[in-house]
């Protein structure tokens, strides 16, 4: 393995460049300051495009690089499922979010159909699905840093983001498949039943001996919760791909199962380990490699593709922001609906996934795929910044006076057996 030159040596060279970008991206993000809030993942994608085969050629998408990138994507979707707290979004929030996403999908398909007519795009369904997404995994760290994790606005945003990520994953399994729609639907239903059964088992109270063993091995060389988690994740990835579903459905289900199965454990400690593995190692590789695979030259050399960027950006705001703004008119005052709408129109990871899968299936041309990803990058740059600026103008700093939940008493371990954390606390439940 450490012998002469070959593909492995080239992989190490590419990995060196990729992880150098991963180290620099949060530092560059901090340099922009809190007012701009440029996400590190945007920097990773842009830097990846600069050093990749279509740029300076300093890094290449070899087999090992692609494999680690795909696992990074799976872990990213796993983290989205793990962060989902059903106690906060159950009832009206998730029902409203689901309805809003269906409306967004209809609007997105309309925009995609218009783009097909005007620019010869090969698949309006791909564009419509990409426009009807929300980047929950992008927003969660921003909300956590801003202290929104325990607010009612954060709960509504989590429900909307869940619908905007999980809905496209289900549709992807229906659209980008060689199976018949009926057969795929049956497989989806069976998988859902299996996942629900697993969730019920995971949520059951554990014996004190099991909890003690897991707690004892949370730290140190054992890391038993992490090892069990990776086993669950890989097993569900294998299961979903074996039955012809998109692997990311398995990753999302794995996150939910692990979240439910972590009751009684120190959720902060377990989550910190997942963050270290995901955001510290795997996730940056996915975003840098995604940038490396973008053919920016296709956008530059196609004037029509450049014009599609603002079209897609406005499409995101209309398709995702407008339904959220309208459907929450009785839940939030006008001044708070605008930030929620802007957050809802922020996307990127699922768009990258859709583009990569569509390109592999030859359903979208390179210039249009770059235009859609560019619009998603601009949404991450512009929409959260505008949303936070609007929130800063609200008296009291916290949206609409929706204060965080009161801190837990020292003798009250909380629902998950851990002290409350702004990023993972229970927070108020919006009915």
Write the layout of secondary structure elements.
Layout: H1 7-32, H2 40-51, H3 63-83, H4 86-89, H5 92-119, H6 124-131, H7 136-146, H8 152-175, H9 181-203, H10 208-216, H11 224-242, H12 247-261, H13 267-292, H14 296-300, H15 303-327, H16 334-344, H17 349-360, H18 366-392
Descriptive overview:
By secondary structure, this protein is mainly alpha-helical. It has 18 helices and no strands. Helices cover 71% and strands 0% of the residues. The longest helix has 28 residues, at 92-119. It starts with 6 loop residues before the first helix and ends in a 39-residue tail after the last helix. The model is unreliable at 398-431 (pLDDT under 50).
- How would you sum up the global shape? globular
Whole-number total of structural domains: 1
Q: How many angstroms separate the termini?
A: 57 Å
CATH class: Mainly Alpha
Strand content: under 5%
Q: Profile the largest sheet.
A: none
The CATH topology is given as Na+/H+ antiporter like fold
Short description:
With 431 residues, the protein is mainly alpha-helical. 71% of the residues lie in helices and 0% in strands.
